[in-house]
Amino acid sequence: MGDDIDEGYETIMSSTSSQSCTTWATIQGTLIEPREKETKEQVIAKIDTLYESGVPFFTKNAIRALSNQLKTKTTPGDKIITKDLTGASIEWKSLDWYGVQDTAYEPLSLSYRIRQLDPNSKTKETIPDNLEDTKDRETVAKDFLEKSQAWEESETCQRFKSILSSEVNGHDINKIVGLACGSLALPNNENATNQTALLVTVRNWLKDRDQDADISCYIQDPMNTSVDRKVLADIGFEMIDDPRGWLEIDERSVVLSVAPNVPVKEIIADTARPAVVIWNRVEEEDTKS
User: Fold this and answer.
1) How confident is the model at residue 187 (pLDDT cuts 50, 70, 90)?
2) Quick one: which of 70, 120, 177, 187 has the most CB atoms within 10 Å?
3) Second CATH level (architecture) for the domain 131-288
């Protein structure tokens, strides 16, 4: 017998702990018009049916509407309304914080700090969780210039330009969008540097092809910092916040997203048909599509 799916959904969004406080943030979602509980198997079957019928799981209107609500409804207890795949309305409460706020008079307190190890670092370096660990603007700009020049001179870059000339030459393109490319200002940023350099190559190739036509260039990644914003602006890219990147993508766009931790392929498949998409195969089944 399958698990029952409750009409209310509760997700622990984050937890923090310090010497003075321990707090939890929760978001609670409830169907505005409760319906009969369904088993897990019934829910899966319903989702499969909707998917096979072509119902989009993501739409630009829904993304835009949710973004507008999140910007304006910031007081704890404010209601945010979304719709599920069946069209039913779900009410969510804005972040509600609770927990021990003051331990000044406690006889003993325990604190901890969680840091993420960088999987690309042989020395097990950690990914910084504050701006103090980012590199300064001059260092980032110098590092990017050196590595992007090395990329431009590489055989791989020449092959990439050849692919652009043979496969993309007939497409009408006026926009470039990079999603989840990583931060140039964080340590061990080789992937971010490589992806950003590739986007610069695409931009320059398009300008050469179209005789310096205006190409709008955007990069969206929540890891980006104020240093990234300045360095990206220096090379002609605008750092934008979620969800603008999704809304900018259209049939005249080049999109780059390599190994993101969000469903980029699924969102783009439902919301746009960009002229060019550059991404990696994440599963063996992708070779068949």
Assistant:
1) confident
2) 177
3) 3-Layer(aba) Sandwich (3.40)
